[in-house]
Known about the structure:
Elements: H1 2-24, E1 42-46, H2 49-57, H3 60-65, H4 68-72, H5 75-87, H6 92-99, E2 101-114, E3 117-129, H7 134-153, E4 157-163, E5 166-172, E6 179-185, E7 188-192, H8 195-203, H9 216-225, E8 232-236, H10 238-252, H11 260-277, E9 278-288, E10 291-300, E11 332-337, H12 341-353, H13 358-369, H14 380-385, E12 387-395, E13 404-409, H15 412-422, E14 428-432, E15 435-439, E16 446-450, E17 453-457, H16 459-471, H17 479-487, E18 495-500, H18 526-532, E19 535-543, E20 546-553, H19 556-564
Antiparallel strand pairs: 1-2, 1-8, 2-3, 3-7, 4-5, 5-6, 6-7, 8-9, 9-10, 10-20, 11-12, 11-18, 12-13, 13-17, 14-15, 15-16, 16-17, 18-19, 19-20
Helix pairs in contact: 5-6, 6-7, 10-11, 17-18
Amino acid sequence: MKRIYFILLIVAVTIVVMGVWLWWNRPQHSDMAEYVPLNCLAFAEIESIPTLLETLGSNEHWNEVFPGLKKATSPANRAIREFAARTGIGPSEIVVLGRAQVAVALFGVETQDMEQTLTIKPHVAVIIDTHSWEFRTKVVVEKLVGDFAVRTYRNPEIRRYVSDGATWTEWIANDNERRIITAVVDNKAVIGNDASAVKACLAIRSNADSNMSKSEDLVRARSGSVKPDTLAFGFVTPAGTSKLISIMARSYSPGLSGQPAAQSAAASLLPAISDRLTGSLSWTARTAENRIEDVYLFRFSRELDRSGDNLFTIPDKSDFAFGQFVPQDANSFSSYSLQNPVNAWRGLKLAVNARLDTTSSIFVSRLMEMILEPYGISTPEKFLQYVDRNLATVRFADDDSASLAIVKVADELHLHELVVTGLGARPLIRKDGDVTLFSSSKDDRSAAFVEGYLLLGPESQIKRCLDARKAGATLVNKPGFLRFVESHSGERENAVSISREPGPLGLRGASDSGTRSENPGEQANLDSALQTGAYSESRTTLSINGFVRKSSSNYGLFGRLASEFTGFPR
């Protein structure tokens, strides 16, 4: 009898010890913003690697490009991964990846002009909380990062050392310029391409008051954007947004004007202007109807109380009649809906100028006046007075020239005079059936009035639209487009864009992997893409204080990032 009691006691103690051990060893949620310095330019986080992989693995498009996802997210593998994550028992790689939380921090962007090409090098650190023992963290991080470094650098030099209380490993490319650095301390791993970025993340341990969790802008963005089904969250600080705009200004300023003085002014003034204008930018990713939905929220630097002005009022009903001019072989189209286009234009100028000084305001106003110059329109506000509330643009994949604009006419007499005058002296006039085509004699700008609509753009594109309309080869009355129109009948947004997704099933770079779409003809035209789902869609809503853009596609921003890494495991 005593022996039975002794055995029961042993069993009870064992159960209690195991329970205590499992409770103590359970993964606990971390606020990844606490591991990132407050002075970084941008921050992103993934709360759960397994949740992200399982979500992508349930998407048929991701499975076709990355077949390994389906196997990794099978019920058997999921059960093993969940057991390992909960108990800490199992192979190190499964335990670590099952428990890991990931954050990414951008510390700077290095730019260099090389023969009219702007080279951009971001300084980035990836922070991983493995919620595991340090020895597991070292083994898994060195294996995964090392394999990637070998695939990328072929035969890198490897250096290992201890510094700042962490175990460091560097993989250095043969050019001695590119490198990947890891530092592991306790259950944290920091991976970066710049030693200073890695050190900054390690140093935050001794300076808890200066981490990203103290940012009021970040806290506000998180509270308004992050939901239970959010896969990832990103945040760009006002300084980071300004930096990105400055880089864009350097990249695009040569195209702003043919005058070197104007180019120089744009390159020097735009960074200062962006500092005054830009606020934060946040991003969230989730799944909706087996597609990836990315939501971007941009805020201007200062709130303006003009909610009663109705500057960006959306019409009660969207008008997609422009589809009669969009050829089925078009690559994309965008539709813009504004109850009063002139008020919207003035509201946009107000949103910008109210946040700038006089000199900057004058410069930005001039830049805004140049927006429609590719179409021969030098006075946008006057142009918008003569058009209806719906505008559209069309782009072709095989034509790199400017996009084609389709405008519903409100005042044809005055609009005709404005447009023809904008084409310059003695424009060329040609008849195309019952349509009169006006073309500039100096450059590739043309215009055509067709049954209450105005087409503006390169002559070849206008003819392409007119020929497709005659042949019945436009989107109007086609199944995919009709479904699109029906789905948007109750939607209210200022802009909606549809684009065929490039590459096999939409993922750029997938063609290099040997993966091919089984039905390449599915993307032969835009209507087919609308029917099969091989398209991306974005919806934008404007306000005086910023905008919200919702993008839905088969791959989302994750797909764009994955395609950048040729060594991404498939």
